[in-house]
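User: Before I run my own analysis I want an independent prediction to cross-check against. Here's the chain; please return only the structure tokens and, at the end, one sentence I can use as a sanity check.
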Amino acid sequence: MKKGLLFRIHSFTGLLSGIFILLMSLSGSALVFHDELDSLQHPAIGQLNGRPLLPVDSCYRSLQKEFPHAQISSCMLAENTGQPFIFSVYDSSYRKGTQTMQVFVHPQTAQILAFRGAGKDRKHNFMAWLTVFHNSFHLQKKGEWLLGVFGVLFLLSLCTGIIHYRKKIVPILLFKKPLYRRSNLHQLIGVYALLFNLLIGATGVWMQRYVFTGSFYAAEQPYTITRKPSPALFFPLDSSLKAVQQQHPAFTAHVIYFAPDAKRNTAVYGSRSTNSFIHSKKYADAVFLDSVGSIARTAFVTEIIPENRRDIINAQLHYGRYGGWPVKLLYGLLGLTGAILSITGFILWFKRTTR
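Assistant: Structure tokens:
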């Protein structure tokens, strides 16, 4: 391929995906610190000395008294007395029950502390809103399609950039002084963040690969969701969680998805300490409980089919959900390079076209 054509492809794909890269870079860097930033919008908890952490059963009953007609979907468990129980609920008091709201429950008194919306409540739940934005631009299937297409363009821009600037990669890595000037910022950032951006681009496109399949374009059948008030718990959850812990001592529960009726299972998601470092510390494994609280089945990450396990690892690599703070800081900083590349690339293009 001729050098001029290769450069034009690099410029064209970079310009087309520039805004996408900028938005995904900024939102992705913030989402690496999702839990830390989201906690800033949690209600304050006045801890009571000498009071233990309540079982989830008590919090569930307290929530039902406050919202007797609500459908209680799930609960994020409090890890200690300094964290609230966070229930996901559908209730007519919030957006007529059409959208999820999160209810914060005091971990020692079961008092309702506050509630807020989920993915569409930008003011009170910004990180959930940003997550939906990063995954679909809040455009549902159209946004998912845009992510897939722009992701491919981003990868194409990276690959053509590698070929076009290949002779400068080694000199830049060897700190050749003539290359270290302001006008070369685009190349410098591109080289030093090359592997990271290839990783993010490739894992992102892999997650969106379904938009290039025929099933994605198939007409969706109309479906009406029926919201029903949640029943009382079918069994003492706290006792069942202790039994799960005894049978699987490496497992720590994180989120409970409540069964809407006695015919279905209650799902408990968490993770085992024996899992590989690459797997989520909160959602890697699942235990399903029947209507009397006994273990119906497990879905540990080591038990699922290899294809699904690869998808899980791919997502972990994309979002940087492994390795703790060192990895988060690395992803947060390198994630911003995409935004810098889109801005510096546009400046270079603008200068060339206005000469």
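Sanity check: The longest helix spans residues 140-164.
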